[in-house]
Design a protein that fits this description.
four-stranded antiparallel sheet; 2 domains; alpha+beta; elongated; single chain; 55% helix; 305 residues
Length: 305
């Protein structure tokens, strides 16, 4: 695999969260008993809003409404008590949250994660998408954007005046916040390691090492996706005893093989995935894997270099 060239596109995804509809209220000036009274009344009001929304939308799934309290130290003598909560019904919050989960499931279906970039508590994944999958991925993301836009429009129309009226009795106001949620953003950048166009040997060596790192990261991700099959072969679990489970494992291997081939890792497919497919079909060929599954797969990967 010394001459392997990854092909495809680097992918990054940014999905807005339901936090756009969370509001903060500064309750610092309220004495303790009054603050607790507000919390009780606000919980009752928000729970009633959820109940009415479920009745009007035929959504009878139970939901739990919670308030989040934060205590901020500004100075030694100035401490702030902030109450945070969603101003829209919980079912709407859940639908917006579910969009994010579905987007990342779609991304994982069409790509391989290769790196995590952390900025404070925030984390972004960088993926590689085979060229053949990019169009289907973008089509599904566009569909989720349409659903998200519809949910946001519904949320923005929700009447929050009862909440404002309750807070006004305590001389409090809702935090002002922009609810124009941005759409799901996808960025693609072509992989361009095919040639190291530089007169500097140091630059060429740096690019070569970076490409090698990316290949290793891809291989590690592929190994993780092979773990259910390795486990089934090693333990001879019931997954191999039923036709449905056997077919599921086989389809999974075929998907991983296609992904590896499409991003340029044909040697990995031949050396690792094809023998696993054969081992599922023939128990005798699984003996070598069962004796040392971790060593078997690592040894075959090392042999490629």
């Amino acid at each position: 695999m010394k001459k392997v060239r990854l092909r495809g596109n680097f992918l990054s995804v940014a999905v807005p969260t339901e936090s756009y509809f969370m509001r903060d209220v500064d309750c610092s000036k309220l004495p303790g008993p009054t603050y607790l009274q507000l919390v009780t009344q606000l919980q009752d009001l928000l729970s009633g809003i959820d109940e009415t929304h479920r009745e009007n939308t035929d959504n009878f799934a139970p939901s739990r409404r919670s308030l989040k309290a934060r205590y901020l130290k500004v100075t030694n003598t100035d401490r702030r008590r902030i109450l945070s909560f969603f101003v829209i019904p919980t079912p709407l919050v859940s639908k917006i949250k579910n969009i994010r989960a579905k987007v990342y499931n779609t991304v994982r279906k069409y790509s391989i994660v290769i790196e995590q970039i952390r900025m404070g508590y925030h984390r972004d994944n960088i993926y590689i998408v085979p060229p053949e999958y990019a169009d289907d991925l973008l089509a599904e993301i566009e569909q989720y954007n349409r659903i998200l836009k519809s949910l946001v429009e519904e949320a923005k129309k929700f009447d929050i005046t009862p909440i404002e009226a309750l807070l006004s009795r305590y001389d409090l106001e809702l935090q002002k916040k922009d609810t124009d949620i941005p759409e799901i953003r996808v960025e693609l950048m072509p992989i361009s390691f095919s040639t190291y166009e530089s007169n500097s040997s140091r630059v060429q060596e740096l690019l070569r090492k970076r490409e090698e790192e990316l290949v290793n990261q891809v291989l590690e991700e592929l190994k993780k996706r092979l773990e259910p099959t390795i486990k089934a072969i090693t333990e001879q679990t019931e997954k191999l005893a039923t036709k449905k489970s056997y077919n599921s494992l086989m389809k999974g291997l075929e998907r991983i093989k296609k992904m590896a081939d499409d991003i340029g890792l044909h040697e990995f497919s031949s050396a690792v995935i094809v023998p696993l497919i054969e081992a599922l079909e023939d128990p005798d060929k699984a003996l070598e894997i069962k004796s040392d599954p971790e060593g078997w797969i690592d040894g075959r990967i090392k042999s490629l270099f």
